[in-house]
Design brief:
By secondary structure, the chain is mainly beta. It has 3 domains: 110 residues, Dextranase, N-terminal (Dex49a from penicillium minioluteum complex, domain 1), CATH 2.60.350.10; 129 residues, Pectate Lyase C-like (3 Solenoid), CATH 2.160.20; 232 residues. The chain has 2 helices and 40 strands.
């Protein structure tokens, strides 16, 4: 049981991070209701960005003040749907704008780049019966010591003891190699807690095995478990900047064959590959996840935000993602590990993303027989190469898909090859030249409603042949660069059928 919030004070999570973990950004100052918040800078990325993380009182209006020390002409705040108006700086006064509640925002200026603001509702750390703190089980703040055995033993103790349910890591820096979450265990990272991968790739996984081999190890793993939770506003750091030099490219969080999984609140950063790979899982909820990864200026790194793969009944909502490939990609990968199964009932809502591949995507891997009832709603792509995407490149029948209330602000045209020209809608049941597959997928019964792009980009639909194509696509209220989309502007081949478009007059 968690006690109610004791007060309505503004809490700066970044101010409680361990000394030396992330540098402070000295070129921008942020205050909320006059309270200064620490701005950290992800300077190790090819395209650096800044990040603010704080808790604000709920159901109230707040004034946010920005002082930027570099010359800038304009400040823009996303999501656009919020209609936030910035009052520009005057003389020595900062720029200001007002917000309600605890939104996730992206601030863009021509002098700073991207500033990500993650405001959270009040949520005290768990306490009481069933909760045990790491130091009570021998896990202590120590940025220099790898504590894989101590942390694993502590999680195993919680899992095995019916009187316990939560292992809580207080503020501090914890280093570890490969860890496994067990059934009936909640790992809670308090504000200021950092769980970082070891500097040695051998501590985490076997880099000799790629693909979906059973020995493919991630930093955080779970296998065939149930009632597993990863919560709290702390950081999980894959240590990419160090492990890259060792050729390490495993996922950061890999969950296979689990039931009743919850990820609520953490910051994921520095992944060497996919951030969150869910394989063959059921009953999953991901809420208020912040994914902060490298996004190269040119090209890409394969740091997808969340990949539900052969999963059923998954909800992903209210997330902020800065990735070097896809944001959310619903998949059904190959059969090598035995977890291949149909995909159903996946819902992604209230996502704000910066990425250089696809924002809301099904595929590329579509090896299951069926992938159905997949919904993306209230999606805000601040910058992306492709917005609404279905890449049916294998053999699945992909049906009952909805993209609704989706906004694109800028196309990212920096990535060579696929999507380099910017694609608003990309439905592709075919066989790409870069994969040795037959392309036996079907795409059918797709709805795209209330889609808005501030820039012009391609709308493309393509099938392989009459048996494996695209059919029954309904488009409603699609606006591109301020003008309604027309059917003539949609590029289609001969294997696309029953496409309708309705725009308000």
């Amino acid at each position: 049981m968690e006690h109610p919030n004791a007060n309505n004070a503004i809490i700066d999570f970044n101010a409680q991070l361990p000394e030396g973990y992330l540098p402070t950004a000295d070129q921008v100052l942020v205050k909320v209701e006059g309270t200064p918040l620490r701005v950290v800078r992800y300077s190790q990325c090819d395209v650096p960005f800044c990040f603010v993380h704080a808790s604000l009182p709920e159901n109230e209006e707040h004034e946010v003040a920005l002082s930027i020390k570099r010359h800038h002409e304009e400040i823009r705040v996303y999501p656009s749907r919020l209609g936030i108006q910035v009052r520009p700086p005057e003389k020595k006064q900062p720029a200001t704008f007002r917000i309600h509640g605890n939104p996730y925002l992206v601030v863009e200026t021509d002098g700073l780049g991207y500033l990500l603001l993650a405001f959270e509702p009040p949520a005290p750390d768990p306490h009481g019966p069933g909760v045990i703190a790491g130091p009570e089980l021998g896990v202590h703040h120590d940025p220099k010591r790898v504590q894989t055995r101590e942390i694993q033993d502590a999680m195993d103790r919680v899992s095995a003891d019916p009187d316990l349910h939560t292992l809580m890591l207080p503020s501090g820096w914890y280093r570890a190699g490969n860890l496994s979450l067990r059934s009936n265990c909640r790992l809670h990272l308090c504000r200021g807690a950092v769980l970082q991968a070891s500097d040695r790739a051998d501590d985490i996984g076997d880099p000799a095995h790629g693909g979906w081999h059973h020995r493919r190890a991630a930093f955080i793993n779970a296998l065939s478990g149930q009632n597993i939770s990863l919560t709290g506003p702390g950081h999980i750091d894959g240590n990419r900047s160090v492990l890259d030099n060792q050729g390490y490219y495993r996922d950061m969080v890999s969950v296979k064959g689990c039931h009743n999984l919850r990820i609520d609140g953490p910051v994921f950063s520095g992944s060497c590959n996919w951030n969150t790979h869910l394989r063959g899982c059921e009953e999953v909820e991901i809420n208020r996840l912040k994914v902060l990864n490298n996004r190269p200026l040119v090209g890409h790194v394969n740091t997808d935000g969340v990949n539900p793969d052969c999963c059923r009944r998954v909800t992903i909502h209210h997330c902020l993602m800065h990735t070097g490939d896809d944001a959310v990609a619903v998949k059904s990968c190959g059969t090598e590990d035995g977890w291949l199964g149909d995909v159903a009932d996946i819902t992604v809502t209230d996502l704000i993303a910066i990425n250089n591949s696809a924002t809301a995507k099904i595929g590329t891997e579509t090896c299951a027989a069926r992938m159905e009832r997949i919904r993306f709603e209230r999606i805000d792509a601040v910058r992306t190469a492709r917005l609404c995407v279905i890449d049916g490149f294998d053999r699945a029948t992909i049906s009952e898909v909805t993209f609704r209330d989706v906004q694109l602000n800028q196309f990212d045209r920096s990535r060579p090859g696929s999507g380099s020209d910017g694609r608003l809608i990309d439905l592709h049941a075919s066989a790409p030249t870069w994969r040795k597959i037959q392309g036996r997928s079907r795409i059918e019964n797709v709805k795209l409603q209330n889609i808005t792009a501030d820039e012009r980009g391609q709308c493309r639909m393509a099938g392989l042949n009459e048996d494996f194509g695209v059919s029954k696509v309904q488009l409603e209220n699609i606006t591109v660069a301020g003008k309604p989309l027309t059917l003539e502007e949609i590029e289609r081949n001969d294997f696309v059928h029953e496409v309708t478009l309705e725009n308000p007059t």
